Amino acid sequence: MSKKPFFISIIFTILLASGVLLFATYGNGPAPLGTPENKPETGGNAQHGPGLPARLIIGSIGVDASIIHVALDAKGNVDAPTTPHEVAWFQLGPRPGTQGSAVITGHYGPWQSGANSVFDNLRNLKTGSRIDVEDDRGAVRSFVVTGSRTYSPDESAEEVFNKDDGVYLNLITCSGDWLGDQKTYTERLVIFAKAI
Amino acid sequence: MNTQHIRSKIAMAVSSAVLMGMVPLAAMAAQPSTTSLSPSFAAVGSGAISMAVNGSNFESTSVVYFNGAAKATTYVSPSVVTALIPASDLAASGNFNVVVVNPAAGGGTSNVQVFTVLGANPMPTVSTISPTSATAGGSSFTMTVNGGNFVPGSTVRFNGFARATAFVSGNQLTAFIPASDIAMTGTHAVYVENPGPGGGSSNALLFTINPVSVTPGLPNTGFGPMSQEPLWPKALAAAGIALATIFSAVIIGKQVWLVKR
Questions:
Q1: DSSP readout, A132-182?
Q2: Of B17, B95, B216, B247, which alpha carbon lies 20 to 30 A from A118's?
Q3: Which residues of B touch A10 (CB under 8 A)?
Q4: A110 touches B at CB < 8 Å
Q5: Could you tell me which chain B residue has the CA closest to the CA of A39?
Q6: Is the Cβ of A104 closer than 8 Å to some Cβ of chain B?
Q7: Is B226–A84 a contact, with Cβ atoms under 8 angstroms apart?
Q8: What is the ipTM of this complex?
Q9: What is the tens place of the pLDDT at every residue in A102-161?
Q10: In angstroms, rounded to a whole number, what is the distance separating the alpha carbons of residues B59 and B80?
């Protein structure tokens, strides 16, 4: 009796399992802005002001990351991105390019797998470094770094979120030492930038 | 001798003939009666339609009259006839009488149903909306839209999306704005859309979703070395090894089979 059908079925099963695994890993990208059933009407002057931030580009430290949108976590903190390679715009604050302080967060630190985080080199930004944010309509808004500051994790950072006398973009990540028992770092690093 | 007198004489003669069996009763048409039209309305400028008249006592010789003119009629059953209403009858808005006529002997004209040709919808305008702003992350709310030329089919669009709309009057609509529409800051257009024929989109007013006024806590953006390693790289590696093993087995097995042959 031939064993070929047995081998073919084994191969098929493994390929199928691999496909399902890959889909589960990569198939959950950002949700589309409008499903076909509920597609927005583009007429009637529907588009106003900056679009939703979609991409963060910081050439000087090699960052080119997609932007997800987050609100608050259960503790009332700004939520964090879900992967080491993407960044997150705080959607309850201003959009980058509008009056006020827009905030984008990104991860810091290595994974066990060896993967680096998108903001590992954020501390290397200097005053005058350029930051670009592309929105979902393809428009790019540019900012220049004006300064930086570290905070303790529980410190109130009102100037990071509430300064509204200009058009600002503030980037947040972790810094300092890793606290294994708390699964966090000892500090938060904030890069302050303003619109060019 | 007047017309009424002649008619009564004819009726008496027909009745006598029926009574004497000279004219079979089955050959006598009954007076038709109507109960409804389907459809009972159409938009002005529509193409030709087939209109069903529902009722009773319809005959194969029944004729539908639309606005006083006989129309091509198809007998379906004693309770349904259909008539072809040409586009020329739908070119102007208004209400038009529809009757069914059964021919003599007997027969007669039914009661009247009204068919409406709807005029073109006007272009809506928006003058005010309330509220005009919300805070990002807020709850769902009902928006009131004031303006003019609203019709029962008018729809409020928020950021381009049609939202559940209630017609209050020709000057006011209300729309349900779900919390998901104000989950992020931004400025969105609000306008009204009237359906065709005619209709169209109104001018747009802006609705602002303001940032929250509280200061949130700083995020935990650390992926420390103790972070859980994702499973997929290991799973992929295991699948690759398994795949390579199976392929090797197939090749070896094939060589064995070749030798056996």
A1: EEEETTS-EEEEEEEEEEEE-TTS--HHHHH--SSEEEEEEEEEEEEETTT
A2: B216
A3: 246
A4: yes
A5: B161
A6: no
A7: no
A8: 0.74
A9: 999 999 988 777 778 999 999 999 999 999 999 999 999 999 999 999 999 999 999 999
A10: 9
